[in-house]
Write a structure and sequence with these properties.
Helix content is 20%, strand content 36%. By secondary structure, the protein is an alpha+beta fold. The longest helix is centred in the first third of the chain and has 29 residues.
């Protein structure tokens, strides 16, 4: 659109070009966004399950024999993968024991007493740990079991990403009485 300056007609000024581009910009953005939405709707819709990380324990259940004092609940390995099956490293995962208050003499997470200068190790019902380069967390000596059998209680070990409420995986846990295994 030509402008009139000092009685003479001139071509479009920078100001008028910017004004026109500014007026068209929302229409361009909406047009591009709408096309992307249409393409997604036309294809297979993606759900939260398609994009969510997946977690698994190395076994659906673990059982240890009651021991005097405490022992390491060995063999518990958790693996975190993305929707494409690749390992997710460096992600913080919360591991928690269901009904910890009732099974505390049987199973717990233990933190080393030395760094905090405590007389005895502290016992917890949950622990936050980071996945390694292979997307794994080996609970090893952090998960401990004691001398008291869990009985018929349905105790579970749960894993979830810190900051979310979605449970990624669960596994049954039990501590058996030494006499019942003989």
């Amino acid at each position: 659109m030509p402008e009139w300056v000092d009685g003479e007609e001139r071509g479009p000024s920078r100001r008028s070009l910017l004004r026109t581009a500014g007026a068209l910009l929302p229409a361009l953005v909406l047009g591009v966004g709408g096309a992307a939405g249409t393409a997604t709707a036309a294809g297979t819709p993606r759900t939260a399950a398609d994009t969510a990380p997946r977690g698994t324990f190395s076994s659906p259940g673990y059982d240890w024999t009651a021991v005097p004092g405490s022992g390491a609940a060995s063999g518990v390995v958790f693996t975190l993968t993305g929707p494409d099956g690749r390992p997710l490293s460096g992600r913080r995962v919360r591991f928690s024991l269901s009904a910890f208050h009732t099974v505390r003499p049987s199973l717990w997470f233990e933190v080393d007493a030395a760094p905090k200068r405590l007389k005895s190790p502290e016992k917890y019902g949950y622990m936050d740990l980071d996945t390694d380069a292979r997307g794994r967390v080996t609970l090893g000596s952090l998960l401990r079991h004691g001398a008291v059998p869990t009985g018929a209680a349905g105790l579970e070990l749960r894993a979830q990403l810190v900051g979310t409420e979605t449970i990624l995986a669960t596994s049954r846990l039990s501590v058996s009485d030494l006499r019942s295994t003989r």
